[in-house]
Amino acid sequence: MMDKVFSSRYFMKVAPLILAAVSFILLYFRKQNTIETPGLFSINFLVFFSYALFFAFGWILYFQKNYLTRFRDRYLYLLAIGFCFFIIKLAILSNGKWVAFKSMQVILAAIHALIMLYLIFGLIGLALKYFNKHSLIGRYLNDASYWIYLVHFPIVFFLQAALIPVDLSVYIKFLLVVTLTFLLSIFSYHYLVYQRSIGKFLNGK
Fold first, then answer.
1. pLDDT at residue 187 tops 80
2. How is residue 135 annotated by DSSP?
3. d(C-alpha 24, C-alpha 21), whole Å
4. What's the mean pLDDT when you consider all of the chain?
5. What angle do CA 144, 147, 153 make, to 5 degrees?
6. What SS3 state is found at 59?
7. Which long-range contacts (CB under 8 A, 24 or more apart) does 186-192 make?
8. Alpha-carbon span 70 to 6, nearest angstrom
9. How many CB atoms within 10 Å of residue 92?
């Protein structure tokens, strides 16, 4: 059944819209226009299902690798649509009067859902087009990515808190947080995880 869905010539055109519709419903019920990161250990089930949607699609796609070429062949189209919606969202957010309307939160949630899916699909296609070859650095970063995902949040939190009293441009602070978070995450991966038992647990042998 799933194989027939993926093999449909129209699947690539409607898949972003279908997944965006589900994402929008989850965002609407949470009355949010973004998927937030909960700061508690308790489970927020609407956030959980929002992320589970992407996980489930990726899991299904893993067993349908022969259809990945559809992302590659249409990556420019997908990225263009995603960036267009992104520009529209920036235009709305830049106008305080528009954001004040309750109905605008619904529109922003729908736009955000479309941005997510079109850019995700487009970036997958871009990667398949230009980075689909063996690379030792790429393999290393790929293996490190899960660890970075797990540890980056507390690092970002503490760096942001440390920079609050510092008199610097918000853009410089952003670059510092991103750069230092990446460096600290890679450092911890190389010396605590790489070729160790925890690395085998996270990534396999």
1. yes
2. -
3. 5
4. 84
5. 125
6. helix
7. 186/144, 186/148, 188/147, 188/151, 189/144, 189/147, 189/148, 190/144
8. 10
9. 15
Tokens of 62: 């893993």
Using CA atoms, how far apart are residues 143 and 193, in angstroms rounded to an integer?
A: 10
pLDDT of residue 175: 95
- Count of alpha carbons within 13 Å of 48, Cβ hemisphere only? 6
Q: How many residues appear in the chain?
A: 205
Q: What are the domain boundaries of the chain?
A: 2-130, 136-203
CA pair distance 152, 140, nearest whole angstrom: 17
Q: Which residues contact 132 (CB under 8 A, 6 or more apart)?
A: 72
Q: Per-residue pLDDT averaged across 133-146, rounded?
A: 88
For the chain, the C-alpha Rg in angstroms (whole number) is 19
Q: What is the pTM of this model?
A: 0.72
**φ and ψ at residue 34, rounded to 5 degrees:** -145, 165
- What is the C-alpha separation between 127 and 71, in angstroms, rounded? 9
Segment 62-102, tens digit of pLDDT: 877 777 788 888 899 999 999 999 999 888 888 766 666 66
The pLDDT assigned to 60 comes to 81
